[in-house]
From TrEMBL:
Listed Pfam families: HMGL-like, IPMS_D2, LeuA_dimer
Segments of skewed composition (Low complexity): 472-488
Family annotation (SUPFAM superfamilies): 2-isopropylmalate synthase LeuA, allosteric (dimerisation) domain (SSF110921), Aldolase (SSF51569), post-HMGL domain-like (SSF89000)
Protein name in UniProt: 2-isopropylmalate synthase
Keyword annotations: Amino-acid biosynthesis, Branched-chain amino acid biosynthesis, Leucine biosynthesis, Metal-binding, Mitochondrion, Transferase
Domain Pyruvate carboxyltransferase: 33-311
Lineage: Eukaryota, Fungi, Dikarya, Ascomycota, Pezizomycotina
Highest taxon, organism lineage: Eukaryota
EC numbers: 2.3.3.13
UniProt cofactor(s): a divalent metal cation
NCBIfam families: leuA_yeast (TIGR00970), PRK03739.1 (NF002991)
One annotated GO biological process: L-leucine biosynthetic process
Amino acid sequence: MPMLREPWKKYRKFKPLDLPNRQWPSRTNDKPPRWLATDLRDGNQSLVDPMDGEQKLRFFKMLVELGYKEIEVSFPSASQTDYDFTRSLVDTPGVVPDDVYLQVLSPCREDFIRRTVESLRGAKKAILHLYLATSECFRRIVFGMTEEETLALAVKCTQFARSITKDDPSHAGTEWLYEFSPETFSDTSPEFAVRVCEAVKEAWGPTEDSKIIFNLPATVEMATPNIFADQVEYFCTHMTEREKFCVSVHPHNDRGCAVAAAELAQMAGADRVEGTLFGNGERTGNVDLVTLALNLYTQGIWPNIDFSDINKVIRVCEESTKIPVNERWPYGGQLVVCAFSGSHQDAIKKGFQLRKKEGRGPEDPWELPYLPLDPQDIGRTYEAVIRVNSQSGKGGVAWIIQRSLELDLPRGLQVAFSKIVQKEADAKGRELLPREIQALFEQSYHLKENPRFTLIDYNITAVRSPSPAPPKSSRGQPPQTQAPAQNTSAAKRQFAGIIAIDGVQHPVVGVGNGAISSLANALHSLGIDLDVADYKEHAIGEGREVKAATYIECTASGSNEKVWGVGIHEDVVQASLIALLSAASSFLSSRVSTPVPFRPKHLRQFSEAELEALERLNLNGPDSPNSPLRTSTTAAEASEAATTPSKLNMETHADSVPARKINFDLLEKNAEQVVNGHAEKP
């Protein structure tokens, strides 16, 4: 049957109260209520497989650890299991703290009330909870009772309960409290609810020191939370002797508004809230005590309940009820402190960066986009705050890299890498885990191994243009006997080194304004034309373990193609050289016919000065009998030498040859063969 186009023919709109002078809208909740946890009674009775005694005991102990002082533990007259569990709590020393009340529930039947009271015999603090439906719907359909018959039964059962509890000398060792619930209060005439509770109050005889509890349940949520608040305020203002009773509420979640109903009810005068952890209960469940408590907490109010280890609470609840906590459940869900959206991730990342910059600690005022609660306050970690899928942007990706590798990526690199991540997430069709994103970054920017470039050895020296001869005196002698002071700050830098490209070693020399430009010019001599467009660096770690992280953005000469390189090393110069070679490797690999075998455009002819610079890389000197510049090196010798890396090597692997074994004749011969397309590795 489809939904009705004229639903008013079937369903009646709930009639609100006429309460023109309502006061609750102008009030605020500034303190926590008394809490009653009914997981072991209301929550348990709604389970497909109710908890056994051992599970209930574990749950009870957790509630005590959290700080609950009033716990509804059972419906003793409903089952032997509940009765036995209640007795075990009372009879086992040390299980129930002296300041914790055990609450038990019974319907308004004398035999049930008697058995319920017996289950608590010997308890230090006890709450006897009786309920009786008062709405016209339940009285007419379920019980066939008039208002007067209902009122009389409520009074009779209260008097009987009093006679076998606080008036019974055999129970003198127990501090008895009495709770009465006009069941279906939310659908009961407010005038009749007041009339019944006035009669019950008189029958019990409360005092200011021992108040009666009137529990006003939204047994079925009938209307909007503001209407429930009106009902609670009406009750509070029309009952007499307000100082002698506590108003409790028990909202159910049929319309999805139980939390709001409980909070507005407190504004309307309620002193106490009954509910369960994560809202377990009949149909759509009870009000969630976790949400209520942490709502107060995020308003700067200590709720008297400690959820510092919310993951443990979730684990116990799920194992006991066999109902998983929804991933989107307020505060407790696994995804509530996670952001997948790119704009959300960027805002969160900036918020954390600002807190770090301002030096804010765990107790300093919390203000962070999208996160009303510091995840660490409830035992969550920041690592789970940002998660990445195909919808995520650069901010989330950068956050994960910053947390895992301590790298503060420049914005341009964030954009470039986020595209790589999005492509990977699309290909996998799922969220990427942080470890997968870290591995993808290390692979994309060659942090563990550069697959195409290896810097075998290098040297950077200051060079300057030849200066004109100083003028002679009239007698042909220099005007001064000492050499003029050298200003090396204006000198160029010359890079001389050995670079292995795709396993083939090439001697290169380049001159520039600094280390990066001189290496870039050296690569230019091999036909790799890259211009440095952006450069950023920062330190990683502190003290002696500090490293330099360098980021270089390069553009291919004559095109708009951009590539990024990343370098990490103890020496900032070497880090920058690694970053440039990382970019060069990405440049070669990004060509259309990837991977492209490297072919230098021409053979480099070195000048005498450049050869001398290359010779200086040899630790034994060019005149040594074993100098590779003066003698040939066999493949076997080169292979053997590869096991002893040069002390200047930065990124070596099994094919690297240390500087003292380099044979430039062999290298140049191989380079020539590369041009002809049939080179072998030296």
